[in-house]
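Example record for the data management plan.
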Amino acid sequence: MRKFICALACCVFIFSCKKDGLSKLKSEFAGTWELHKSIGYPFINPVYPPGNGSIIFLDDNGSVELRRHDTVERKSRYFLQEKKDCYEEKKKVYLTTTDQSYPHDWYITLDSGMLVLSTPNCYADGGLTYYRRIQ
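Corresponding structural encoding:
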């Protein structure tokens, strides 16, 4: 019985640490982000000026909104999980949403103060989208 309780406590500790790590990432990603640049097909990769109004809002409680200036165009929930990319062994943080009308999933990272959403590297027409923090 004692071994069972110790094993159960270890499992709870291990799984809670992983969840806490993703929760900590949610708070790092939380904020209002405006489109900065998009890289991918059709390879015209413009840099968007500040104030362009293409905004993604991530809350650390799991809600996500796509906005055009102050107008909410889509609202749903998002979830983070660790997942391997198509051709890599290293796990990355994967973002999925509950919005069935816009079924896009991305790998999500922070790079030099920018929020980066990227498609899996096995997608033929994949790409990267960079957002600058505005709040």
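Summary line stored alongside the record: Confidence is low (pLDDT under 50) at residues 1-19.
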